[in-house]
Amino acid sequence: MAPPLIQLKDIKLTFGGTPLLSGVELNVAPSERVCLIGRNGSGKSTLLRIAAGLVEADSGTRFVQPGATVRYLPQEPDFGEHKTTLAYVEAGLAPGDDPYQARYLVEQLGLTGNENPANVSGGEARRAALARVLAPSPDILLLDEPTNHLDLSTIEWLEKELDSRRSALVIISHDRRFLTNLSRSTAWLDRGRIKQIDRGFASFESWRDEVLAEEERDQHKLDRKIVDEEHWLRHGVSGRRKRNVKRLANLHTLRDQRRNYRGTAGTASLAAAEAEQSGKLVIEAKNIAKAFGDRTIVDGFSTRIQRGDRLGIIGPNGAGKTTLVNLLTGGAQPDSGIVRLGANLETATLDQHRESLDPKSTLAEALTGGRGDQIMVGGKPKHVVGYMKDFLFAQEQRGTPVEVLSGGERGRLMLARALAKPSNLLVLDEPTNDLDLETLDVLEDMLGDYEGTVILISHDRDFLDRVVTSVIAPEGNGKWIEYAGGYSDMLTQRGADLKRETARAPAPAEKKEGRAAAPASASKRKLSFNEKHALETLPKKMETLQADIARLQRVLDDPNLYARDRKKFDDTSAAIAKAHEELSAAEERWLELEMLREEIEQA
Questions:
Q1: 3-state DSSP call for residue 366?
Q2: Which residue segment(s) compose the domain that 542 sits in?
């Protein structure tokens, strides 16, 4: 077994009160792909920062293989004094790294490189941060919520990019499909300790349930043993003093075990306050259209949404998803066409932009609007602390400022505010952002039990497959098509993935304040800087690889090598296999670019 690239041993960390990390162990071998799972607030991000060397634990050791390169993707990138996104990405390169990789990845991720970091959106900031950590091709990638703020096409591109690399991965993510497709082992951070198995995320939930069931059985046995020992203490003491003293000490030990046992965290109790039933027809749109200037967002779209439908809306950032929802729900008027809303509609909306939360207000004030200790839930008063507990907030957090809450806690707070309002139409814009897996499960169950209608904007493929009954996807030029079923059903019917439309400017309704519009794509396709560079350099790279393969093959041709030096034989075999893979990839890429160049010249 290969020695670990990074090893954390007996890591302990306490921020006052209950230890956050107590004896954590984590080993990451070369090319290993680990998903780090845990509840919100369990310490996942903190542990990743310790692994990156950015946070010092109270005790324990951190070991990184000498010469190994580590890159860490934070949830909130710090652009510092960099004037452009490209400068920020290039600053992550080490001496000897290929500078063309920075430009290539910036372009692949839909950026020009000239964006001012002070004005970028959350999605643009995330893409720049990804380019920065990917460009050096590090040995270890530590990724904290890499899919946050990314659209579906970019998530799928990132998935393929990471899958093609040899870097070891440690990933924190709420995106179950992303974790399932990439992970090969699972590290579960639970109550300050890690349990790890050599199976990917697909096996996590069944394994977790087995572990918790076994733990529950052990606690039941412990409780029974304590009862038996206490019965002996009251009724069975005999004259053998030494034996009795030892048994009494054992009883104290059992009680200490029971007292120190940290039970599993509770489960969120999500329930939407439902209004009276709406009419059977909720929304009818006939041939609606909307444009901003010379850009068409919606062109000739029609649909009928009936009570109980769960409608998913997907598409690249800037495609017009929010504009389409506003048109359907009456928040904006179409330029042409008709939208008819059904009778007795009561709408509750969850906005993905958490800027609507006052960072200086307390948790309780954000729920009550600063009006006393009561919150109206479904038209009835409920004490704010009781409602907080339904969403996994402790009573002690009542006075906590919103600005210090984690991303997951802010997500639960937004859900709590939206679900308190009586509704029969729920409009949810990216509800899964930063939620832990257990809360996602509860949210799915709640939506399944909700008797009203749901319109959902999401980039979470697994969540869409589990929740929605139809999907609306953009086809370009303002055309939107509705498909029956979930996301996977949409792909089957459509026969293709979503197009990546990263070069298109967002509609004004979807711009963030201070964000400049992205330049429109050129009408005629041209070879990019990186494509030209690849065409020039790939032939030389292929020659070098062919020479390396020939040299390695001469070493392997020695019939006595295996018996004489097993390690050299294994290393050479691995090196020649890698060289063949790289040569094949280089040849395919060169052929693809050469065909593209000919097409462009003939156009």
A1: helix
A2: 529-602
